[in-house]
Predict the 3D structure of the following.
Amino acid sequence: MEYFSSRYDPIINNNLLVYKIFDSAIKNCRGTIIPININIDGNNQEEKLNSNIVHLFGSDASEHDNYIYNINDNLDEMDLWIKDEAIYLKIQMKPLSYNKFYRPNNDVKFSYKGIRLLEEKSNSYWPFIYVDIYGMDTKRYLKLSREKLTENGKKHIEEIIKNIQQFYIEKLKEKIDELKHDEVKEKQFDKFGFITLASMKIKNFKASEYRFLLDEGIKIQVIKNNNGILKKEQVTFLDIIDDYPNLTYIDINRFINNSKKQNDYISIEEELKTNINDIEEDIIIIDKNFIDILEKFVIKKFSI
């Protein structure tokens, strides 16, 4: 809105209405897949709300069966168009600046032809997802208010999102495999998120083959079993990546100190010692944020 911001003063004459129009367009149509041009008083200067779909259908776009898609150069974003239903999706996996294991759930954002819906859906697999249900059967999938999805619509979109997450991770892996290690390391995407999701969604994926993506800085709280002697230590993710995700962890929620909201590591050690004859593993994970990730695999939990 640079041109209009400098050209019009909202205090003079009726220009306040002009600003209301701009504000409404930005709020409701910024994610539109239809290009929108705003022109005032027939002036040749106009403001454009760029369409993601125009970029998607550019020379960089690729096609796979029912999808047209584009993964950006930084590997942290994919735009995708589902041809038979005319549905647009954007998936983002931006790098995190905080604890690499902590993954807050992102809400899936919905629009209908660029107009934001009130509908939101929790996405437990972390990437940000935006969906425009442009070509869906509105009678079946959108409520009369045009603000929320019907139950059928929610189920249909959930299946679409599941399939697109799978597709994105597979295509992201292909992109990574095409590049040299040094080139990929320079890309600013959620590298640990990729390894985690690929381990969940790609058959026979070996996390250890992608250790080059990570640094040594990711620390995990564990209990080490050295011939029956238990000791709390820190290891790096790279120390255990060869076995990931087939790791053993405890039911950490039993040991949360609610008053301090911290793990009671002393109680964990004491209970493990009472069950030492049942422990065959050399390492047991006791890091809550990392356990939250492991539980998505439904793998080896050590019950005490």
